[in-house]
Amino acid sequence: MVLVDGGAPSRVGIAGMGAIGQSLAAILDRGLPGLELTAIAVRDPGKHETFLSGLTHTPKRVAIEQLVDHCDIVVECAPAALLPAIAAPVLKAGKKLVVLSSGALLAHPELIALAETHGGQILVPTGALLGLDAVTAAAEGTIHSVRMVTRKPVKGLLGAPYLDTHNIVIRDITEPTCVFNGSAREAAIGFPANLNVAVALSLAGIGPDRTQLEIWADPALTRNTHTIHVDADSASFTMTIENIPSDNPKTGRITALSVVALLKKMRSPLRIGS
Hints:
Blueprint: E1 10-15, H1 19-30, E2 35-41, H2 49-53, E3 60-61, H3 67-70, E4 73-76, H4 83-92, E5 96-99, H5 103-107, H6 110-118, E6 121-123, H7 132-138, E7 143-152, H8 161-165, E8 177-183, H9 184-190, H10 196-204, E9 212-217, E10 224-232, E11 236-243, H11 254-267
Parallel strand pairs: 1-2, 1-4, 2-3, 4-5, 5-6, 7-9
Antiparallel strand pairs: 7-10, 8-9, 10-11
Helix pairs in contact: 1-11, 4-6, 9-10
């Protein structure tokens, strides 16, 4: 494949080696045109030594603040609380940051300002949600409403702060139970490890306060299911996706693949989608 801008491969760094980080590292290690995995940052390198030693090209292990020195693009696959520490050095250097913890962007709008000031760029991949191209296109006109209904297996919602705060017990439920009904902003606070897809949808469309969300815990489900209803002056559409969970039940396998697709678009001579 001929790269759109030629030159040396883009150096990619990964912050976090959970299910998504490991999946992405393995794919990059097998080889993607114009992309090279050069560094990773984790809190406990020893915990991931077996996985990392199995890679053909072993990346450098560095501290979070040092990723920027070894990479052109940093992919954040870490707990949401770490986003500011990961993002600030990358954006100050005018480089690209791929953010999976998009919910944390609502709590840290200064990161967007930082990117604007220094010429950096924050990229939020489609992740586990389909149809973001249609939503961003509709947002160029007028969107009247966006509503999303998320249904997850029980284990995919366990430990969410919202459930603890409101004394909602779902571990032993026997039928589908609605555990949340509110805005995407409220969901990002109450379900920080579960609903980054809702925040991505809100940022693509009418914002986190107007984007409405229902969350259901369903003991019969084995897949994370998202249904989106959009009503706009240009189109009305409904989309449903069933995502197969990764080793981490809170995230789908397609999330890592979405990051790969985004990275490939950066260097490809043919780009499909907005």
